[in-house]
């Protein structure tokens, strides 16, 4: 069975030929959630993002990985003992 890489998604050649939809991974879900929560210039505590992800069944480790993956798009500022996240403006 041949594996193809297609726009950051792994699918088998058979799935591509059959037109099978790609199911979002937890990492993709976490990245999308972070981007959605911080859209339109919103700021949010990192801990609150972690809680929102946990409510959707996304582990803390996966959220941490997603934050690292989005690192070039995120601004992290310390607010007392916590971290405040926002998106960089283009």
UniProtKB/TrEMBL annotation:
Tell me the superkingdom of the source: Bacteria
Record keywords, A-Z: Coiled coil
Coiled-coil ranges per UniProt:
13-40
* The keyword Coiled coil belongs to this UniProt entry's keyword annotation: yes
Protein name as annotated: HTH domain-containing protein
Record the organism. Blautia pseudococcoides
């Amino acid at each position: 069975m041949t594996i193809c890489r297609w726009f950051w998604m792994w699918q088998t050649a058979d799935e591509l030929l059959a037109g099978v939809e790609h199911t979002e991974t937890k990492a993709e879900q976490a990245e999308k959630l972070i981007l959605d929560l911080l859209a339109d210039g919103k700021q949010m505590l990192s801990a609150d993002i972690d809680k929102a992800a946990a409510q959707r069944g996304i582990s803390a480790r996966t959220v941490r990985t997603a934050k690292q993956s989005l690192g070039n798009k995120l601004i992290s500022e310390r607010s007392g003992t916590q971290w405040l996240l926002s998106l960089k403006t283009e």
